[in-house]
From TrEMBL:
Family statement drawn from the similarity comment of this UniProt entry: Belongs to the ExbD/TolR family.
Keywords, in A-Z order: Cell membrane, Membrane, Protein transport, Transmembrane, Transmembrane helix, Transport
GO cellular component terms given for this protein: plasma membrane
Organism superkingdom: Bacteria
Places the protein is found: Cell membrane
GO biological process: protein transport
Full protein name: Biopolymer transporter ExbD
Pfam family, one: ExbD
Membrane topology (UniProt): Single-pass membrane protein; Single-pass type II membrane protein
Amino acid sequence: MKFSNKRNDRGLEINLTPLIDVVFLLLIFFMVSTTFIYTNALKVDLPKAKGDEQTVNKNIVVVVDSNNQIFVGKKKVPKFALYRVMKDLKEKNPNIPIILQADKNAKHGTVVFVMDQCKKAGFDRFTIAVEEE
């Protein structure tokens, strides 16, 4: 049996299609995951104007400490006055949310009482603050 001495020497062929696919996928991934910063290219001096005072939509922080004392902001509020204080705050800024910070040693009943009084005053958005572990 005679074998042919012809060799198929076409050289090394590298298929570039998978490589191009991977490069485009990486390009798309980085384009989508990048956060863009929009800067104002033109510096503009805006005119001054007078108008009604705007109310700043901040949060109301209600704190229940380990002695079950209630604070709205940094002001101590007795239990019997909490509803009135919260009602006044709701009338001043109706869309303001509540952040409730309760000490881990505070009584559960006091925290529920605070939430009930806030709910009666018309607040429906609560955030309960916790510490990250």
